[in-house]
């Protein structure tokens, strides 16, 4: 992926893109992005926690595998493979991994903080 580009186009092959460590037990891999949308794969080990946070980006997430306890604006639900959820702009949310798995996150607009990490080569 071109670290200086404002977008990543074409095809995505998982084996050609590095996983970046986000936090203990959590890694991410960028699938594709431009200024308006970004797709990210997020891999969790059992017990890993994506702590409560919020951002102005809308987020749609698909559960590719595993099981997660998801909190959205104070409401908790368990989601499993094949499920999904939507988080509006600026709504607090977090995730606890109950069974090792993967989430596919789509953000709109693209996460500028993630783009800066790509450009700078910073893995967190």
Automatic annotation (TrEMBL):
<dbReference type="InterPro" id="IPR052535">
    <property type="entry name" value="Bacilysin_H2HPP_isomerase"/>
</dbReference>
<dbReference type="InterPro" id="IPR014710">
    <property type="entry name" value="RmlC-like_jellyroll"/>
</dbReference>
<dbReference type="InterPro" id="IPR011051">
    <property type="entry name" value="RmlC_Cupin_sf"/>
</dbReference>
<protein>
    <submittedName>
        <fullName>Cupin domain-containing protein</fullName>
    </submittedName>
</protein>
<dbReference type="InterPro" id="IPR013096">
    <property type="entry name" value="Cupin_2"/>
</dbReference>
<dbReference type="Pfam" id="PF07883">
    <property type="entry name" value="Cupin_2"/>
</dbReference>
<feature type="domain" description="Cupin type-2">
    <location>
        <begin position="42"/>
        <end position="99"/>
    </location>
</feature>
């Amino acid at each position: 992926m071109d670290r200086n580009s404002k977008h990543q186009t074409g095809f995505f092959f998982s084996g050609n893109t590095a996983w970046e460590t986000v936090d203990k037990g959590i890694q991410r891999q960028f699938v594709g992005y431009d200024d308006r949308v970004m797709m990210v794969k997020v891999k969790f080990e059992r017990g890993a926690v994506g702590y409560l946070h919020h951002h102005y980006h809308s987020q749609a997430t698909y559960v590719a595998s595993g099981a997660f306890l998801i909190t959205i604006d104070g409401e908790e639900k368990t989601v499993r493979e094949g499920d999904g959820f939507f988080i509006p702009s600026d709504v607090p949310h977090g995730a606890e991994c109950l069974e090792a798995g993967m989430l596919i996150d789509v953000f709109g607009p693209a996460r500028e903080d993630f783009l800066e990490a790509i450009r700078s080569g910073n893995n967190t």
